[in-house]
Amino acid sequence: MRTRTVLNGFMGLAAIMLVGCNSDDPVPQPEISNVILSGGVAKGVINRGNVVAEELDDNGAVIAKVGSAVTGIDGGYRLTVDRTYSGGPIRVTVSADANTEMKCDVPAGCGERADDITDSDNVIDFGEWYKPGNLTMVALVAEAKANDSLVANVTPYTHLAASRAMEAESLDAAGIYNANSEVSNLLGGVDILGTDIVDVTDAYLLRGGSAMEIVYAAFSSAVATLADTSRGSPDINGVLELLSSSFRGGMIIADDESVDDSVISLQEIVDGANSVLGKVGAVGISDTSGKIANVQASIDEAVAAGGNIDPRPSPITGASALARVKSFVRDMRTWGIVIEEETRAERSAFIQQVGMAAMAAGASHEFLTGPAFAGVLDAIKQSFGSIVVNGSLSDYTVGLPEGPQFSAGTITSVGGIISITGAMINGVTVDIAMQLPAHGVTATSFTLGIVSASLRSAATDVELTSGTITLNTAAPYTVNWMPDALSTDLVPPISGGSVDLGMVLTQKLDAMGAPIAAVTFAGDLAATLSGPVEDGYSGSIWATSNSVVMSGSISDTTGNSLDANLVANTTGIGGGVGGFLPFDPFSTGSMGLTFSLQLAGLPEASVNISSSRTGFYESGTMTVAINYGLRQILMDSSYSGMSNFATINATGSITITNQDGVSMVLENDFKISPGSIALNGQMYATVVHLNNGLTKITYTDGTFDIL
Fold first, then answer.
1. Are residue 469 and residue 521 in the same domain, yes or no?
2. Burial track 128-159 (b if 16+ CB lie within 10 A, e otherwise)
3. Strand, coil or helix: what is 669?
4. 27 pLDDT exceeds 60?
5. Which domain holds residue 695?
6. Cα–Cα distance measured from residue 173 to residue 56, given in angstroms and rounded to the nearest whole number
7. Which of 60, 514, 583, 648 is the most exposed place for a label (fewest CB within 10 A)?
């Protein structure tokens, strides 16, 4: 088996989005020195929080204080552990004093202000700083070796894991590993200690955050949405205690339908996370990690089976560092080889087909269906103001005068339903019937109902089976279906709205116009629109899409199919209301694709692929997450440019990690340059690509594996 083939097994999945021997650890150094602890503190972001690191014995008693720090305005801290540290568990405690401030991350706000921060309305709004008063939150680190660099973020969920370990009276390294792993698995596999939290109230930081960071921030913010605000600001200590008591015995109620204030259910946490994402959805942020959907599926399954969720720790969690590294390599071999070999004959062709169809759909949308749909909307807009009263579409001028125009078709309005029949524009045949708002209504928001619609071309067919388009106007508008021919009653500029459609999208030609085994997406599409954005060429004002969700089935004519969910945060897409499909190569933002993978001899795996781009073919990141049972493989890659839709420039890096914190790092030209495998900042293996195409992994105990 060629090593680069193993890696290509993982990267082949990502193409959809981008168009062993046992041994003990090395002998430890006699002095445990140069241990670094760093991380972020958030519930929301905590500024000037007091961080204290203490070594504990196996019973939880404090042996000694081994370090301290103060959080910065971003909630981050960093400290060097004292040389008095002897290798036991470390408790990281964050507390507040009179100078400590916290960002309000509750969508509805954090109550009345009772501190000395100047505020005109005396209300703590979303994104505003306030002083939380009494606050204590902890995280437990199982152990550290000399020269370890440990990430220990402090959040409500690390606090929950610490409470779980204390309740189980398991404060040795194994017990702490298990408690942290249990709570990580409760959140669908989010690493509660190692995943950084992005400030959920800062749109700029959110757009730069990874999919995992965003969903972890949403989960953490969800806790504050459940806090008691009867005394003013949220009682964070109270809700942390309630969360801990709700997880007694390592189980939590899936869905407390009676809304019992004495317990927190997992459904309430998910609802809170969705509430936070709903708040930031206006700036184009949503969950592309697939974690919330996975947790919701676990809740639904648990409710059907009796009501409780018992997240078990991952099986390798408490093993020695080198044992965890070797387990990681075994998983890499298993999944890399199986993905490659099992998908080579069947799924690889389908993946390539889907990728090729996606690129072609982008071209079709940009040059065919997109302009055609925009022309339809323009004609409807003109009909609103009775600019053209003749029913022939050839009398309409849509878009730019020199741009595509209707060569055939009629437009009629009967009983509030406007119909475009037999239309031909830009090589696209269009038939649409839409239910329009009633005559005489004055509003700033109007809903257009799709009765039926089809856009057909040689390359692409789009069938809209049902749905609505909601458009918000920049000023109040009164619907008038009976103006005279000279009316100037024009629709104001569109400033936002949403799209919710049932659709079937079929791609029949590739981007070069050659026939392919037609790939079809059948399902639902939802998008939010924002704006307005002015077209510099025509002067038209358009709403642009900032988030898109597509859920359904992808299939081709040879019998391959895949149920998938795609989420896109499409900041920066241009092209008007007609531009809501996420295929614009000039866009920035992020996408997530989630599907199930069932391969022979292996447990069913949930696969999530997410990517983000900061500019047109400039730079970006990509993540492939494979969750199977209680284990996970996560591949993160970054690149400084793309030569085309499916190829990453040689300048970049790939990091492959698992649920135990083991990471393989390959940098620059990852097919040639050496790499390494590390845990807690220490290297336990080197990765070298051999001339025969295989990869040799050499461990620090002298043993090796060949992939």
1. yes
2. bbbbbbebebbbbbbbbbeebebbbbbbbbbb
3. coil
4. no
5. 1-25+594-707
6. 10
7. 514
pLDDT attached to residue 341 = 56
Eight-class DSSP state of 485: T
Report yes or no: 350 and 556 within 8 Å, Cβ to Cβ.
Answer: yes
H or E segment to which residue 280 belongs: helix 266-280
**Residue 331: in which H helix or E strand, if any?**
helix 321-344
Count Cα atoms within 13 angstroms, Cβ side, for 102.
Answer: 33
Whole-angstrom distance, CA of residue 406 vs CA of residue 557: 32
CB contact at 8 A, 398 and 542 = no
Spell out the residues 6+ positions from residue 336 whose beta carbon is closer than 8 angstroms to its own: 5, 6, 7, 9, 10, 707
Question: Beta 149-151 vs 36-40: how paired, if at all?
Answer: parallel
- Angle ∠(42,286,19) on CA atoms, nearest 5: 125
Residues making up the chain, counted from first to last: 707
Helix %, strand %, coil % of the chain (to 5): 25, 35, 40
**Does residue 341 lie within any of the structural domains?**
no
Does residue 2 sit in the same domain as residue 49?
no
As a whole number, the mean pLDDT across the chain is 78
pTM: 0.68
Task: Transcribe 30-93 into DSSP letters.
Answer: SS----EEEEEBBTTBEES-EEEEEEE-TTS-EEEEEEEEE--TTSEEEEEPPTT--S--EEEE
Rounded CA-CA distance 402/392 in Å is 19
Reply yes or no on whether the pLDDT at 283 is more than 80: no
Q: Write down which residue in 536, 555, 587 finishes a domain.
A: 587
Alpha carbon distance 154, 95 (integer Å) = 11
Q: Look at 483-492, 557-566, 568-577 and tell me which has the smallest mean pLDDT.
A: 568-577
Is the pLDDT reported for residue 667 higher than 80?
no
**Where is mean pLDDT largest: 54-58, 391-395, 525-529?**
54-58
